[in-house]
């Protein structure tokens, strides 16, 4: 069984490994578990979406006033639509979530962290063009054996 967090209501769902995650329906809200796009999370639902799921999760720590963050946002969203459900994509407003930002030592933005099974496995600062971001993701996911 895989623990996969619902994109709509943040409930953790257990999905049989032999079932397609992209077709799973949340047992709580009855909506699709996967939304094929980046999910914005905050202090209240970060752990469920990032630390308690069995899927790799790429987290973009950003802020609305940060020009490189704004430039990277469409790249991140495009990757989310292409990579899900293999990888989940989460956006965290670093200004609105100081506890989370401090917890992971975010000192510059954008900061991109890759989590797997509740642990940070890779981190990168700064925006990237789509091709470079996709290459980075492929390398990281392959190194996880996925």
From TrEMBL:
PROSITE patterns in the cross-refs: THIOREDOXIN_1, THIOREDOXIN_2
Glycosyltransferase listed as a keyword: no
Annotated signal sequence range: none
Presence of keyword Transport: yes
Single Gene Ontology MF annotation: metal ion binding
Domain Thioredoxin, first and last residues per copy: 27-142
Alphabetical UniProt keywords: Disulfide bond, Electron transport, Metal-binding, Redox-active center, Transport
InterPro entries in the cross-refs: Thio2_N, Thioredoxin, Thioredoxin-like_sf, Thioredoxin_CS, Thioredoxin_domain
A GO cellular-component term linked to this record: cytosol
Family per similarity comment: Belongs to the thioredoxin family.
Protein name, entry field: Thioredoxin
Source organism (scientific name): Reinekea thalattae
Gene giving rise to this polypeptide: trxC
